[in-house]
Protein 1
Amino acid sequence: MKHYKIALIKGDGIGPEIIDEAVKVLDAVSSKEKFEITYNDYLMGGIAIDVKGEPLPDETISGCLESDAVLFGAIGGEKWDKLPRDKRPESGLLRLRKSLGVFANLRPTTVFDELINASTLKPEIVKGVDLLVVRELIGGIYFGQPRANDGNKAYNTMVYEKDEVVRIARVAFEAAQKRSKKVCSVDKSNVLEVSQLWRDTVTEVAKEYPDVALSHMYIDNASMQLIRNPKQFDVILTGNLFGDILSDEASMVSGSIGLLPSASIGGKVGLFEPIHGSAPDIAKQGIANPIATILSAAMMLRFVLDETSAANRIEAAVKEVLRGGYRTKDISQFDAKEVCSTSEIGSIIADRVSKI
Ligand code: IPM
Ligand code: MN
């Protein structure tokens, strides 16, 4: 029997609750598909600051590096916002991404027909949207040197080396080959040198993928086009900061940030997390939506463990449960037949997974 070692980072706020539900679903699918998972918990974020005095303890990095994949909930909260930047929960996550080498962040946005009214956009604009943001995750302005803030003057550096652009571009083109064969690369090359290198490099890499159509868009225009006509996009390829912004925007096309998963891959060990944050205001009330985390676990099965049928099972179960009208509170106003708690919906999905 195949056996996988998964590192769990529950983190802060609603993190522990949503990870518990993903584990429930993983246990159901693994017993059905005949593989075994052992889980090890590691600390990161605010809880790690409280317990260990730092947002990313060494044993978390080494534990993750010894695992087959990392499933992560969420971090952060007001309590730690006053700390210096490099001591905050977020810096733990950035350092973990860098330590794992996960340069490719895949953020799919799909619209569930059952929740078509959850979007603030008109149903005819969002129906059928299926796009993937491929965001470069361990370079660009997030990590560029020099950076400083002396109270009078502050700066950051947006820097990309050609190799970094080549490798993320390949991820986007390869993803497009399995989808609708279109890549739209987003930059600001009318103003920034770093974006000119980005654009020239992506154009060069595109020659290796003649079956994929490449277009380019400036970030300002892309932000507008994403709301005007999201269906024009298949794969959006972009850098770290633009990708951070565009993927939040894309999530609102689907209407429910609580449903969208992500995968960070390309490094030593893959990292899988919901795209939403730690939502401390609703923590420990049993109302958080665990579906984004459950779907992140499905991406983990698909992308690194190669358990495609298990991943399909989870995705199908989530669709069925939504079709059945089961809703957590955040989406309860959209055709709910039954409003469920975090753990109720997790159990319903786990139950469906075994029956599909
Ligand atoms: C995300 C988050 C992070 C980012 C923060 C928490 C550092 O917004 O995963 O999109 O900016 O990458
Ligand atoms: Mn973000």
Protein 2
Amino acid sequence: MTQRVYLIGFMGSGKSTLGRWLASAMDGWTFLDLDLFIENKYHKTIPQIFEERGEDEFRKMESFCLQEISSFEKVIVGAGGGTPCFFDHMELMNRSGLSIYLQLSPQGIYDRLQTSKSQRPLLQGLDGDELLDFISVKLKEREPFYKKAMLIADAEKWKVDDFIDAILKYA
Ligand code: S3P
């Protein structure tokens, strides 16, 4: 059985929530949030890293951490929304584990982001139609990467048990 499951998808698609549920339901597995891993390693929050070092530097740190994590065992990894779209990350994830894309419509993402926009540097200052437009454009740009995932799950419909079945089936 695979040792790593990577949950990928746009900001707000529910990677962390689902990842925590899955890890608690799967014996011996832990959830690892890539953003938190970066924050702990560099002792800075994601907004601080973006502000002080810029996005390019953040992407290098993200890549370094993903490579480290790709050798951990029994981990459900919640990737950042941009992780799959930089360097060879989709190939790395597909080589080292099972990647699952949590697919949602722009409106579905928009609805879910209402409560959690503030910690996300890329969404600062965006509201209403501007936010929905940003999500639509960015999602279109990112979907070709997300769609390289080994499994694509409709995040509106899939239940935790469906994910567990899919993970267990994956040899
Ligand atoms: C980003 C998503 C964030 C975080 C950073 C950049 C992105 O993670 O990595 O703010 O480029 O979509 P979440 O998807 O967990 O919010």
